[in-house]
Amino acid sequence: MAINEKMEKALNEQINKELFSAYLYQSMAAYFESKSLKGFANWLDVQASEEKIHARKIYDFINERGGRVLLKAIEEPKHDWDNVQAAFKDALAHEQFITDSINKLVDLAIELSDHATNNFLQWFVAEQVEEEATATEIVDRLELIDENVMALLRMDESLGVITLTATSEE
């Protein structure tokens, strides 16, 4: 059974949001590179890669269901932040925005009795729980260390070893 047109349109919009997420996180990574905070940049590079994987999952799903992927322009992301904490607060707020968007997709799938899409979206629901928890932990730690430069550099170092894992692609 082909995908419902309303669901197809909403999923296409989500692809755009996921690609914007990648663009935003890449912009944040560039900001941190310019500040010689390569660990924070690395973490955001990994996040950007994950967001592209998310967009591709939706892209493939639309095609599998007989729909048509229609890509739109990606909005220009923010380029500068006052400090590390401000950037990660923006990242957390953005993850919360994406969670809300995924939840609305689930609501639409339920409204349309589109069980296949609802099932597909459950992976994203679980993924957003993880994404928000990780971003919240980083924001909380940044609030704890406040202006302690040594602690900030240690945190930067610890985020420098994060890599894209196989579970990010499932």
TrEMBL record:
Residues 1-146 form the Ferritin-like diiron domain. GO terms for molecular function: ferric iron binding; ferrous iron binding; ferroxidase activity; identical protein binding. Gene3D superfamilies: 1.20.1260.10. PROSITE patterns: FERRITIN_LIKE. Fe cation binds at E18, E51, H54, E95, Q128. CDD domains: Nonheme_Ferritin. Its EC number is 1.16.3.2. It catalyses: 4 Fe(2+) + O2 + 6 H2O = 4 iron(III) oxide-hydroxide + 12 H(+). GO terms for cellular component: cytosol. GO terms for biological process: intracellular iron ion homeostasis; iron ion transport. Keywords: Cytoplasm, Iron, Iron storage, Metal-binding, Oxidoreductase. It is an enzyme of class 1 (oxidoreductase). Its main location: cytoplasm. Pfam families: Ferritin (PF00210). It is found in: Cytoplasm. PANTHER family: BACTERIAL NON-HEME FERRITIN (PTHR11431:SF127), FERRITIN (PTHR11431). Iron-storage protein. Belongs to the ferritin family. Prokaryotic subfamily. This is Ferritin. It comes from Oceanotoga teriensis.
